[in-house]
Amino acid sequence: MTITVRLKFFASLREKLGEGESLDLSAGSTVAAAREALRSRGGVHAESLAPGRAVRSALNQKMCAESAVLADGDELAFFPPVTGG
């Protein structure tokens, strides 16, 4: 079974990857699996979402861990850490 997740990118990730898109994944996939699927495209996706890069994620507008399980129709957002000042 396949699920479709709506992706959104913010701040510097939006500048590099665009506003967002849809991503098809296997049922039971996690946020980490979605990030890996994007990285596997290579190029700017691999660079922007590389392991060790500080990237935060939110599932349906709530901060989440990479172990969070995705469901069909979820909104998954990626963004760099935000600092105040």
UniProtKB/TrEMBL annotation:
In Swiss-Prot or TrEMBL terms, this protein is called: Molybdopterin synthase sulfur carrier subunit
Family from the record: Belongs to the MoaD family.
**Top-rank taxon:** Bacteria
UniProt-listed PANTHER family: MOLYBDOPTERIN SYNTHASE SULFUR CARRIER SUBUNIT
The lineage, from the top, is: Bacteria, Pseudomonadati, Pseudomonadota, Betaproteobacteria, Burkholderiales
Keyword check for ATP-binding? no
This protein's UniProt keywords: Nucleotide-binding
